[in-house]
Amino acid sequence: MWRRRFAFVCSPLVSSPKSTLIHNQAPYWHEYAKAFTTGNVNSEEGISSKVKVPFITFVLGGPGSGKGTQCAKIVETFGFAHLSAGELLRKEMSSNSAKGVMIRDTIKEGKIVPSEVTVKLIQKAIESSNNNKFIIDGFPRSEENRITFEKIIGVEPELVIFFDCIEEEMVKRVLSRNQGRIDDNIETVKKRLEVFVTLSLPVLDYYSRKGKLRKIEANGTVEEIFEKLRPLFAAEKVSIK
Ligand SMILES: Nc1ncnc2c1ncn2[C@@H]1O[C@H](COP(=O)(O)OP(=O)(O)OP(=O)(O)O)[C@@H](O)[C@H]1O
Ligand SMILES: Nc1ccn([C@H]2C[C@H](O)[C@@H](COP(=O)(O)O)O2)c(=O)n1
Ligand SMILES: [Mg+2]
């Protein structure tokens, strides 16, 4: 019943109160569901009603729009597991394997890493977590990302948050981030902004049409922005029954 309340409070556009999580099940889904089971899966009947299905939120926005900053606050306040696609890729690129080098070159160019690489890293992180509420930051960055996630993971997000921030502010934030990222320079930021418009906007459009998108105006202070997010995550609305 949490979902019905969620839909009512946050989006009159959500047309169906039916859970989308257990539809579109990929072949992988059965194994995936077992990772979240309460120990009551009946192999003949399939997934039992006690299986805990993951609650997935995607977070999108241009470079420097504040995704990582706000995700950290959501984790702290609402107990989500934070999976940053960019962070997973940066960890992977630090190995000097051929894949690591490919990731490094792609990130430096401000482009998008092939979806299968990113989705497999996300899959591994989900499988090794004890949590069942995930906030996936910086994903899906493209329609290819989205479709690959659906194919491999077989779960749809309940919610997609878009941080809408003006370009000038995003550039300012990235250039003063000072965390030693290879993409925090003006050339790469310009390319990332172009990639965002070309590849990520269609994803936002897709979720908007499904009634799942929540746009957050992201030009204010960290606290002001978090206050806009808070109602989306009020505890009882995201607890999985
Ligand atoms: N509301 C804000 N006001 C001012 N600075 C902010 C705000 N939110 C985040 N920042 C700062 O801006 C920089 C970029 O923020 P953050 O890393 O959260 O963005 P991001 O959307 O995750 O970017 P990227 O896509 O490049 O990873 C950080 O140094 C962060 O401390
Ligand atoms: N789905 C994703 C997420 C990230 N990347 C690459 C390309 C991005 O510019 C870079 C940094 O990501 P961020 O930390 O800003 O989320 O990582 C990707 O290819 N695909
Ligand atoms: Mg980030």
UniProtKB/TrEMBL annotation:
Does Cytoplasm show up as a keyword for this record? yes
Looking up CDD domains in the UniProt record yields: ADK
Question: Which keywords, in A-to-Z order, does the entry hold?
Answer: ATP-binding, Cytoplasm, Kinase, Nucleotide-binding, Nucleus, Pyrimidine biosynthesis, Transferase
Where in or outside the cell it occurs: the entry states:
Cytoplasm; Nucleus
SUPFAM superfamilies, per this entry? P-loop containing nucleoside triphosphate hydrolases
- Which domain of life, per UniProt? Eukaryota
Q: Where CMP is bound, by residue? A: 145
Q: Where does a ribonucleoside 5'-phosphate bind?
A: 90, 111-113, 138-141, 181, 192
One Pfam match, given by its short name, reads: ADK
- Cite the binding residues for ATP: 64-69, 177, 220
**Signal peptide (from-to):** none
- Principal cellular location given in the protein's record: cytoplasm
This entry's Enzyme Commission designation comes to 2.7.4.14
Instruction: Tell me the cofactor note.
Output: Binds 1 Mg(2+) ion per monomer.
* Entry GO terms, CC: cytoplasm; nucleus
Q: Which GO terms describe its biological process?
A: 'de novo' pyrimidine nucleobase biosynthetic process; nucleoside monophosphate metabolic process; pyrimidine nucleotide biosynthetic process
Cofactor names from the entry are: Mg(2+)
Catalytic activity reads:
UMP + ATP = UDP + ADP; dCMP + ATP = dCDP + ADP; CMP + ATP = CDP + ADP
**EC top class, as a word:** transferase
Q: Which GO terms describe its molecular function?
A: ATP binding; nucleobase-containing compound kinase activity; phosphotransferase activity, phosphate group as acceptor
Give the family, as the similarity comment puts it. Belongs to the adenylate kinase family. UMP-CMP kinase subfamily.
Physiological role: Catalyzes the phosphorylation of pyrimidine nucleoside monophosphates at the expense of ATP. Plays an important role in de novo pyrimidine nucleotide biosynthesis. Has preference for UMP and CMP as phosphate acceptors.
State how it assembles: Monomer.
Let me see what the UniProt entry remarks about domains.
Answer: Consists of three domains, a large central CORE domain and two small peripheral domains, NMPbind and LID, which undergo movements during catalysis. The LID domain closes over the site of phosphoryl transfer upon ATP binding. Assembling and dissambling the active center during each catalytic cycle provides an effective means to prevent ATP hydrolysis.
Q: Which PANTHER family match?
A: NUCLEOTIDE KINASE (PTHR23359)
Name the record gives this protein: UMP-CMP kinase
Which organism is the protein's source?
A: Acorus calamus (Sweet flag)
